[in-house]
Amino acid sequence: MPHGPDPMLATIVACILLAFIFGTGARLLRLPALIGYIAAGMLIGPYLPGAVAERGMVSAMAEIGVALLLFSIGLHFRAADLLAVWRVAVPGAVLQILVACGFGALVGQALLGLAPGVSFAFGLALAISSTAVATKSLEERGKLGGAAGRLALGWLVMQDLVVVFALVLLPALAGGAGAGAGALLWGLGQAALSLAAFVLLMVLVGRRALPWALTRVARGGSRELFTLAVLAAALGVAVLASSLFGVSFALGAFFAGVLLGESDVGHQAAAEATPLTRIFSAIFFVSVGLLLDLSQVAGQPLAAFAATLSVMLAIGGSVLVLLLAFGVAPRLALLVAAGLSQIGEFSFLLTEVSIRQGLLPDTVRGPVLMAAIGSIIATPLLLKAAEALAPRLERHMAHRAAQRPRPAKPAGPAPAPWPLIEQHAIVVGAGRVGATVIGALRRHHLPLIVMEENRAAVERLTAEGIPAIWGDATRPEVFAAAHPERARILILALPGALEAREVLRLARQANPAIQTVVRSHSETETSWLEAEAEVGLVMMGEREIALGMADFAMQRLGIAASTAQATVDVLRRRQLPEIG
């Protein structure tokens, strides 16, 4: 009688074990862990007994991973953040899909022999970015919570909506002319109504019902039940969206996250979902490697290479050009373009639907899979290159703008919409940290100017009578509008270290005597800012929490407030000790 683990159990264990081993190896090589996960999947496929038979189970787990990842992302976003980027994301994503679809169709016709009509189904599979890869890559570089993350997520949501309509369109195309324009329009109209009904249900019912239900569970005091309730909310809404409204499984989970994120249980929901999200999202990347059939790629190497190149150039290039055309800052445009320059889960879905409908032959699987894997592996490298190229592109665009003829106008800067301000504070960043600083300064009626990339936040501050400048503070033209030469102190509440360094450099050029307070995220960055940049005060979240707790404890144990403060000042100049 044969002994050994069940094939399904062996597949799950192999996915998790090899993901850990290869992910650790990738990190040791200073590569993103997701590259190691994909390599683990490529190893599992041909060598693990039963792995091929259990690919459907791995794919299902991967789909859950994508849904939980988007649910977690939704918990940290607000509907206002997404609405603020719709003016760019909606037309931009539609134009980008058309451009990338055209490039992909040309590849299909030239190298795969596809007919002109059906080649657009192949092109569409090469035009939809992977939400899981883009968000994970931006998160690893600390960009997901900023302007780049908001813009990229709005773009991705628009792409997902296009997929909803594409899944209606593909069967109609497979039916040929017999289907008729009326049937096609009817199908698209049904899809639009279903989507609108789902959004309306979420806004009118879900916004109240989901937080209410989780609050009741939280009052019971059981962490296990609360965790189950969070997963039930995420996956339940995802199934509802997919089965009843035709919305993608992942997009449904994202909407659930956005609605829960606006409630007071959102933070705890995120904490409960995070461990499972990390595990299942790792399995998603393993499944990408698992799907690769090297024999299919070997039979069409030129088509696979051309498809990969088409994805990176057509998606990344068109996103970059469109964002610059919409007036987005070069650094931000480069980051978003690099983050979106790949395909993934929705491309696999569109490919399989097209094959089942008889639109595309089986031979397209190899090029699509190779394009996905190649572009996913390249994404972290493209993001790194984007950060390196950003200053050069900014200088180039500034040079071109300077050479462009301008209409005659009176000399001198344009008048600001507020009275002349001197000896003021410049607050860069109006997020949670910046908003707290702004509130403190306003409480004492101190002069300040706020700089923020979120247009909606700037309009809100302006309506409250706070001088606010919209734009990228790392751009000299934008930063100069805050009059740093007359400012007394610069408060950098930016989440990114590179951006903070650039703003600090501009401030020192304009006003060497300006005082500075900088937000930091690591001891290494803190040490550099204090030693090399000579920043007046560097605030690191974990350190300040520890010092605040120590100050409170010392005073409650009888230490005089002045003595406790002196101890805190000494400790602030030291690095946090690491235990374990």
From TrEMBL:
Localisation per UniProt entry: Membrane
Transmembrane spans: 6-24, 31-50, 56-77, 84-107, 113-134, 155-177, 183-205, 225-256, 276-295, 302-326
PROSITE patterns cross-referenced by the UniProt entry: RCK_N (PS51201)
UniProt keywords, alphabetically: Membrane, Transmembrane, Transmembrane helix, Transport
Lipid bilayer topology: Multi-pass membrane protein
Chief place of localization: membrane
Pfam families the record matches: Na_H_Exchanger, TrkA_N
InterPro entries the record matches: Cation/H_exchanger_TM, Na+/solute_symporter_sf, NAD(P)-bd_dom_sf, RCK_N
Domain RCK N-terminal as annotated: residue spans: 422-537
PANTHER family referenced in this protein's UniProt entry, alphabetically: CATION_PROTON ANTIPORTER YBAL-RELATED, SODIUM/HYDROGEN EXCHANGER FAMILY/TRKA DOMAIN PROTEIN
Family classification: Belongs to the monovalent cation:proton antiporter 2 (CPA2) transporter (TC 2.A.37) family.
Protein name as it appears in the record: Sodium:proton antiporter
Lineage: Bacteria, Pseudomonadati, Pseudomonadota, Alphaproteobacteria, Acetobacterales
